[in-house]
Amino acid sequence: MPAGGRPGAGGNPVAGARFHVDPTSDAATAARNLRATAPADAALMARVAGGSAARWFGDAEPAVLTARVRAHVSLIRAAGALPVLVAYGIPDRDCGSYSAGGASGPEGYRAWIAAFAAGVRGSPAIVILEPDGISLVDCLTPTGRQARFDLLRHAAGTLTDAGATVYLDAGNAGWHSATETAARLRAAGVDQTRGFALNVSNFDDTASEVAYGRQISAALGGGVHFVVDTSRNGRDRAPDGAWCNPPGRGLGVLPTTQTGDASVDAFLWIKVPGESDGTCNGGPPAGQWWPEYALELARRAA
């Protein structure tokens, strides 16, 4: 089973990994419930349920976080698959917007990351580190930005030392220039990880993200690998660039390590398709299951 890796450490550390499809997911449960009354919708929902989505961990207290992470990792490993986890607990998360929350301060976050790392220690796992963590530093003061970078560097090293294959979130091609993103990744400790993640919870087409990732890797000196979130990018981004529950989007390609590009370690479903981005476009609060949106994604799948 693949183990952790840093840039330049050799071949793809997740090559050949099998990803776990959760039979108890919201989508799987909805598909079963729809079979008797709406078989066509049940078939669509089964398409959502058939993808292996990452498990997000956010606001749990350190006292319980280790046990929760360890239990999830053990479940996936027992099935012979590679866990894909998202660490989402940075202070001032999402600039206080739809997904506001996170640790109360630097010391709280260090304790939180230590607890997370304890949960994955000894078991191979992919960890996507802090979606939007570097892309949203513009809402912070200069002192706050440096504190954010310091915390991310600490988290990157802690998780990598625990054996995880860590990808530091880097936003998407429609946000910051590759040069700017590379500078932020460098400040946030990408050198202590396998590489970076693109398009998390967004809708940009895969080809654009791969091209953007290559530009970032080159700006970092070359050889830095990345993964792309394909969970909802089957129809590209919305014409107006909306990121919060835009209509007309579709599921992208299923998770795989067969990407056809040596720079791209995997295509992953990091965002859980069918979970809301926030209370926009008719959606429930961020992270809540929204079956109507899930069905729309399936109807318009790539």
Automatic annotation (TrEMBL):
The keyword GTP-binding does not apply. Keywords: Carbohydrate metabolism, Cellulose degradation, Disulfide bond, Glycosidase, Hydrolase, Polysaccharide degradation, Signal. It is an enzyme of class 3 (hydrolase). The active site is at D94, D132, D277. InterPro entries: Beta_cellobiohydrolase (IPR016288), Beta_cellobiohydrolase_sf (IPR036434), Glyco_hydro_6_CS (IPR001524). Substrate binds at W56, W175, N202, W243, K271, E275. Residues 1-20 are annotated as: Disordered. Its EC number is 3.2.1.-. GO terms for biological process: cellulose catabolic process. GO terms for molecular function: hydrolase activity, hydrolyzing O-glycosyl compounds. PROSITE patterns: GLYCOSYL_HYDROL_F6_1 (PS00655). Residues 1-13 have a biased composition (Gly residues). Belongs to the glycosyl hydrolase family 6. PANTHER family: 1,4-BETA-D-GLUCAN CELLOBIOHYDROLASE C-RELATED (PTHR34876:SF4), PTHR34876. This is Glucanase. It comes from Parafrankia colletiae.
